[in-house]
Amino acid sequence: MSVSVDPCASPPSGTLSCYVTTAAAVAAAITFSASGAAPAPLYHEYQEHFDLTAFMITIIFAAYVLCLLLALLTVGSLSDYIGRRPAILAALTLNILAMILFMAAGSAAALIVARAMQGFATGLAITTLAATILDTDKERAPVLNSFTAFAGLSAGTLGAGALVTFAPAPEQLVFVVLLALSVVEAAILWFMPETATRKPGALASLWPRVHVPRVARATFVAVTPVNIASWSLGGFYFSLMPSVVRAATGTTIPIVGGLVVATLTVTGAVAVVALRKLAPEKMFIFGIVTLALGVLITLAGVQYQNVGVMLFGTVVGGTGFGTVFSGTLRSVLPYAQPGERAGDAKSALQSGQTGHRSPLRGVVLEATFKPAARRGRFR
Questions:
Q1: Angle at Cα 19 formed by Cα 99 and Cα 133, nearest 5°?
Q2: Quick one: how far is CA 261 from the chain centroid?
Q3: DSSP state at residue 200
Q4: In order of start, what are the domains of the chain with their CATH numbers?
Q5: How many C-beta atoms surround the C-beta of residue 106 within 10 A?
Q6: Residues 6+ apart with CB under 8 A from 8
Q7: pTM value?
Q8: For position 351, what pLDDT does the model report?
């Protein structure tokens, strides 16, 4: 049985303190989430420059999600065996390479490759960083890990939307900023103390499997369907909502779509913090109700092509999104044993990321929103 190093007890000389390690891991997790969300406001630019269809935009988005899921299934628990530090540094290196590919992209194929590499890097990073935060701050880890996801998604959509709207060469500048953040975080985390003891079995861990602490298995099985549903809603917003908003409002200002998408994640982040003291069971009940209600209101807004209703549904749905995700992590992570924390985080995260996969979303957009936009029926 593996044992975890306690970095807070006596950190080795020349390494970061427990507090700084936690803060740096939180910052890196936010950066990875922001990197994943940043291309959303750029999709319209890509459509114009590369003459892409909505279906191809969905393929580009799907490349990210599929590779993220592949990473969760294979290398998601690798840091339990090789250590947190090398896994984090490998993920940051891959993310830096992905940013360079985005900056140099000149075709749909290049965007797919960049998105795929970014997705794999994120899949490796989010489980490792979640486990690191759990190693260094077990009490607050479930809330911090929930918050980082939504804070990063919000920062990515708003930041990229602002740069696309107001800054020159946004297709490069967005990724220059993210690349610089990744480099700085890699330099800082180079000095982090190792928080997990290496153990044999790294190659065997690459075989896909789901591990959940025994005491949390019944709850995990019960909440997985709604967790998948919540991330399906998130996937729809990040892949297609900017185009929906553009069709609905007629505006070509990229930050408008980013603001609507960010409304979902900002509301989720607020719900995570505001309801952090609520028991996970009550969080699930509240989250299921608000998520279902939010989806219904959003669908009504789409059906009747009313932007105000869509925005209100986004706020309600975002509350459910954040509550369900936070409740899922709070039901699993506190029971994770030291040598299995990345594996348990992987299981909690991959159920939600499965919901991100909807290859037909592009077809739905083509069939539903483009004809409506041409007829001018949105109001």
A1: 60
A2: 13
A3: S
A4: 18-195+213-375 (1.20.1250.20)
A5: 9
A6: 18, 136
A7: 0.82
A8: 60
